[in-house]
Here is the input.
Amino acid sequence: MLNKIFITVTFLLSFSLLQAQSSFVADRTMVVAPDTLLEAPANWFNLDVVTDKVRGVSTEKAYAELLQNKKTKTVIVAIIDSGIDIEHEDLKDKIWTNEDEVAGNGIDDDKNGYIDDVHGWNFIGNANGDMVNYDNLELTRLYVKYKKIYEGKKESDFKGKKLDEFNQYVKLKLEFEKEFAEAEMQYNQINGFYTAYLNADKSVKEYLKKDEYAIEELDSINSEDENLTKSIQILKRMSLMPFSIEDLKSYVEHFEQQTKYNLNVDFDPRSIVGDDYENKSEKFYGNNKVKGPDAFHGTHVAGIIGANRNNELGIKGIASDIKIMVVRTVPNGDERDKDVANSIIYAVDNGAKVINMSFGKAYSPYKSVVDKAVKYAEKKGVLLVHAAGNDNQDNDLVKNFPNKIYSAKKSCTTWIEVGASSWVDTDEFIGGFSNYGKENVDIFAPGVDIFSSTPENNYKNANGTSMASPVVAGVAALVLSYYPDLTAAQLKDILLKSAVIYKDVLVNIPGQKEKKTEFKNLCITGGIVNAYNALKLAEEISKK
Here is the structure.
């Protein structure tokens, strides 16, 4: 699933029509960040910890002090995601174009198997232009698959491999039923609050006979109407909540999506694609509509990596001399292993040297198919950058897919796993949602209150390891553009060895209230990626 909408909010829904304390934990993935009491400094992820007193990655310092008048070579960065608005004002000049393909002629001019793939490819659509928007969680798909075989059976009915599958089904069933019950409860509670607010708002507007009013005006209303009095109480309490009505609406939509699509056993949109889904070697399906029906996540990711630094619009991405290849693979739900594998292969075959993957899930039934594609990228010298996930979990203990691990003894040497850091002090040094792992997370990068591009020439803040991963991918592309002879393994080594290490501070452990630890216990490097340091180290290696 997209490391897309993530925020943890605990709020008291307490008023005369509904009373419930509800903890909102979203779908392992970025929600638009609500207003904070202390706003993040503008462009903070590009700032410097010494010069600007902000724990960014020193991009601006690098351009100012190290890169003046130096030549570059364009780097193609593939973004495997939900789709990208390629007409966005801050991105349109940075989008990769397949020069060997003639746009719109309906012919596979470059004979790569994909017709009119001018700016990339969409693996979750069909030749008629239809596209998948919502999909199940992998948990749901596995539950449905095994239920057909094992429901109503008992352990003594099986042995060997079938017994293992039966036991897995029992585990899946418990997890699925718990997830669905929680999502349904959250939806009913929050939707009840949201509906009560809308009714209260309507009641007050009708009484005041106007479409807009200030919260202070409620004190001037004198009425013996009991319903109006309750409406005023609801609106006053809402005004004290740490979120807006727009945020509340997004929470309702999230849990509605979970119950209606992600956890709905009767929903299966794969027929839209029209492939033979069980044929994992099948590669040539989809369409060239790279924006898709919901390009918020991918567009935000793209801006962090490479928004135009010279057009005086919006934001400044990290890498200036890049081209962004769009590979749409991830729906509002869990991505499918077959599509992930094909996306990696497509990116590699079409010239990408860095691949960003801001998505993840808890189950990977065809991991071997993905591993084969990752090995192919590794062999071809491509750096893969992946978001660690937003479950505030230890990835050394809990599995998160895709990952760099081939087997107990072998892992991908060109893979970087990224956790999310914050601009706030040590109490929130690490994003409270971020996954971590002393062995399985390589490095951290800014991922809290990241301001970037969104569809239709807009810009918004968002949180998630989805934002941290493109920071690292952007730094990688920046370094590679100035030092194009570096191998992917060398590039990874440079990024990890040049990280800013925080030895003398105790940082918060995500998900463990008030507990702290040394940063080195949360990732391999114990540091945050740094463009300035990486470029200096690359220069040293280049001279050698």
